[in-house]
Design a protein that fits this description.
This protein has 15 helices and seven strands. It is an alpha+beta fold and 472 residues long. The protein has two domains: 21-200; 210-451, no CATH class. The strands form two sheets. A five-stranded mixed sheet has the order 1-2-3-5-4. Strands 6-7 form a two-stranded antiparallel sheet. The longest helix is centred in the middle third of the chain and has 24 residues, at 275-298. The N and C termini lie far apart (58 Å).
């Protein structure tokens, strides 16, 4: 295993006057990355025998431009000196390999942004990588980001929600792979020869999440005729407040994957399970963040109430109608939350208007969290397949399965001589279709949701009332 490189001596973050994105070398770096990306195969290599491929000398010249730009920009970011040296070395090794599958493990290990989380600190990050919810190919990407680590968040992480690997970040500029729906920077996405023994950081772009939330929530509130309390309307109208809500939500959500009564590997994505299991896990983490937000609100933490309604609105308005319906586990979780609140009379869809019982919403939302936690706790004593069926029973108590579902017919409809992972093949791509309410809402919000691709804090969003008309 390559030894992790330590960062150079601490240096104060650069001022706004020295922003990387305003330096001429950043524009040259972006252009060079944009030149290289179309030449790359899915795995990040360059096949010089492929149609339209460049001459090797052209690829070497383009990588040379990236190296020159990184070396020119590096003095602006002395806290990343070790990373930028390793990055230049990895770029040269890639060129020397005749642009085989890239291996940037050395520079990944040298990049240690969580070692010194400082509010406002900037980083220039260049890696061959895929962008989750964006580009599935491992293309060369470059992004300039800024840390979001205010004192109040640092104190909560220190005293209540220990999460030493978590990074709250915002965009300053990016290459094409981030002109997408991707709102994360994860080391798992980077092309390396072998996975490190452990990852040491994970970043979530709270500015994109907040801007997207504001756009979709504003549109949904108009479509549904929802009357928001004044303080929640003020939050939706305030990008800074929404960013603070999302960075706190994400910090608590992220740590929850490894906390609680877990009957399985918390990193479930490595396993083959029915997609409702992933949906319940993501919803459990969000509802745990909601539960903690209720406590923070009671303790006088200003962001506590904002987090509650960021979770409710994003989960109910955006998640169910975003993306394809094939194994959409985040969409499933949003549908389940809406149906649970509706069946417990917290939500009422009457006269083409949505009404929310704001006083009961926290209590009943926490009640759903408790049901999922009980499912997990009981699952410790169950075989895997029995646990999957128990989870299906919980979901199907509130969401109607597809009429053609084998799983809905129970164990007798499945070939139980097969191993559990093979029974996943009997799960329909859209096992729990959208309700009529959500089908109609999807048509009303699809253009707004599409417009949030690549959005940042500076991005435009629909004005209140820009989308009108009832959902059904």
């Amino acid at each position: 295993m390559t030894e992790i490189l330590v960062q150079d001596a601490e240096v104060a973050p650069i001022s706004d006057a020295d922003r990387v994105v305003d330096h001429p070398a950043w524009a040259r770096l972006k252009n060079a990355v944009g030149e290289i990306r179309p030449w790359q195969s899915k795995d990040g290599s360059i096949d010089f025998d492929a149609p339209g491929a460049p001459a090797r000398a052209a690829a070497e010249a383009a990588v040379g431009k990236v190296i020159e730009a990184v070396e020119e920009l590096a003095p602006l970011l002395p806290h990343d000196a070790a990373y930028h040296r390793a990055l230049v070395a990895d770029l040269r090794k890639w060129a020397d390999s005749a642009f085989a599958v890239p291996d940037f493990l050395d520079s990944l290990l040298a990049f240690q942004p969580a070692a010194a989380r400082t509010d406002g600190r900037r980083h220039l990050v260049v890696f061959p990588m895929y962008t989750q919810n964006g580009n599935p190919d491992r293309n060369l990407e470059a992004v300039v980001l800024r840390m979001v680590w205010p004192d109040w968040l640092a104190e909560l992480e220190r005293t209540r929600y220990d999460n030493p690997l978590f990074l709250g970040i915002t965009f300053e500029d990016f290459t094409e792979g981030y002109d997408t729906n991707s709102a994360v920077l994860f080391p798992e996405t980077i092309a390396v020869r072998e996975a490190p023994e452990r990852f040491t950081w994970g970043g979530i772009f709270c500015d994109r999440e907040a801007a997207r939330f504001r756009a979709v929530t504003t549109a949904a509130v108009g479509v549904l005729g929802l009357d928001l309390p004044q303080d929640i309307q003020e939050m939706v109208d305030d990008q800074q407040r929404c960013e603070e809500a999302f960075v706190l939500w994400d910090m608590v959500h992220d740590r929850t994957h490894s906390h609680g009564d877990l009957p399985f590997d918390p990193f479930m994505i490595k396993q083959r399970q029915p997609f409702w299991m992933y949906g319940l896990e993501e919803l459990r983490c969000d509802l745990t963040a909601f539960k903690e937000a209720v406590r923070l609100d009671a303790d006088g933490v200003a962001q506590g109430r904002d987090v509650q309604y960021a979770i409710l609105f994003d989960r109910m308005f955006r998640f169910p109608v975003t993306g394809e319906r094939v194994r959409n586990y985040d969409g499933l979780g949003g549908q389940l939350l809406f149906a649970y609140l509706h069946k417990h009379d917290v939500l009422r869809w009457t006269d083409n208007t949505l009404k929310i019982d704001w006083e009961r919403a926290p209590q009943v939302t926490n009640q759903l969290c408790a049901e999922i936690e009980k499912l997990y706790r009981d699952g410790i004593d169950r075989p895997k397949l029995v646990h999957w069926f128990a989870a299906y029973e919980l979901v199907s108590a509130y969401l109607a399965p597809h009429p053609g579902s084998r799983w809905a017919k129970g164990p007798d409809a499945l070939d139980l001589s097969l191993p559990p992972r093979k029974l996943v093949d009997d799960v329909l791509p859209d096992e729990f279709p959208l309700s009529m309410f959500y089908e109609a809402l999807s048509k009303k919000l699809k253009n707004v949701i599409a417009s949030t691709k690549g959005i940042t804090a500076e991005g435009s969003r629909p004005a209140a009332g820009a989308v009108s008309g009832a959902a059904a």
